[in-house]
Amino acid sequence: MNYCKYHALGNDYIVVDPKDSPSELTPERIKVICHRNFGVGSDGILFGPLPSNLAQFSLRIFNPDGSEAEKSGNGLRIFSRYLWDKRSVGCDEFTIQTLGGIVKSVVQAGGKMVCVEMGQVSFQSEKIPVAGSSRDVINEQIVADGKTFTFCAATIGNPHCVITLPEISPGVAKQYGPFLEVHPAFPRRTNVQFMKVLDRHTIQIEIWERGAGYTLASGSSSSAAAAVAHRLGLCDRSISVHMPGGVISIEIGDGFSILMTGPVTKVAEGVISNEIFETIIPT
């Protein structure tokens, strides 16, 4: 099985083209490939390009636990760079279909920077989804590991729980993220962002990603957190999102439409040996 590996601010993905994958990508195989010790190691797998009647390309996104994600901002930037490297696209705008909707993408700076129109953020409980009555989920209370937080929920095709705090750290994300990810309030689980607002144009986030765990950077998390900061009146429409892996730029348009811009780096390409699938990974 041939693969290419990229990272977007330390959030790394393996790209597998369906034509280079002779066997099915089962959840068990995905777990092995993504494993940091027993496989290639990554935060997920991008499976594409696939045919689409609605866009120029279609993409499936898999988390390292074998589950399928609706959308990934970093994954979309990486997949865009992969298409550019394969000369399937040039410098003009193109479209990609995901389970979380269709996005528009443009590759810039010789492939090293990608700009994606991520779609519109919604705070509506049914769309995210969040349990309970129909409402915008803004400044509600939630308990995780015995601590009460004030959170906002949002979706940009995948679910997010954004918690604003005066101080954040990797430790906070690692302690409370696992509890919030699987909280009963979120029927499909959720991505979690712990956010500190630095000024009208800058936020800082720590991320616990659904199906992946603690993550150095995330494009959809950046989009959701920036939208929440703007919805709460804490930030303007142009926001730099600082994460442990680096910075993503977010522009918020009408109706909370999101334009995300960030870098992509190619890491490696190679062949995955079938021998790794004979390994039993300790639980």
Strand-helix topology:
Blueprint: E1 2-8, E2 11-16, H1 27-34, E3 45-50, E4 57-62, E5 68-69, H2 73-85, E6 94-98, E7 101-108, E8 113-120, E9 140-144, E10 147-155, E11 159-164, H3 170-181, E12 191-199, E13 202-209, E14 213-215, H4 219-231, E15 238-243, E16 246-252, E17 257-263, E18 265-271
Structure description:
The chain is α+β, with helices and mostly antiparallel strands and 283 residues long. It has four helices and 18 strands. The protein has helices at residues 27-34, 73-85, 170-181, 219-231; strands spanning 2-8, 11-16, 45-50, 57-62, 68-69, 94-98, 101-108, 113-120, 140-144, 147-155, 159-164, 191-199, 202-209, 213-215, 238-243, 246-252, 257-263, 265-271. It has an 18-stranded mixed β-sheet that branches. The longest helix is centred in the first third of the chain and has 13 residues, at 73-85. The chain is globular, with a radius of gyration of 18 Å.
According to DSSP, the number of beta strands is 18
Cα(first) to Cα(last) distance is: 25 Å
Count of helical regions: 4
Largest sheet: 18 strands, mixed
Shape: globular
Please trace the helix and strand order, writing H or E for each element: EEHEEEHEEEEEEHEEEHEEEE
Structural class: alpha+beta
Strand fraction: 35-45%
CATH topology of the largest domain: Diaminopimelate Epimerase, Chain A, domain 1
What is the CATH-assigned architecture of the largest domain? Answer: Roll
List unreliable stretches of 5+ residues. none
CATH homology group of the largest domain: Diaminopimelate Epimerase, Chain A, domain 1
| Radius of gyration from CA coordinates | 18 Å
The amount of helix comes to 10-25%
Number of domains: 2
Highest-level CATH class of the largest domain: Alpha Beta
Q: What is the typical, i.e. mean, pLDDT?
A: 96
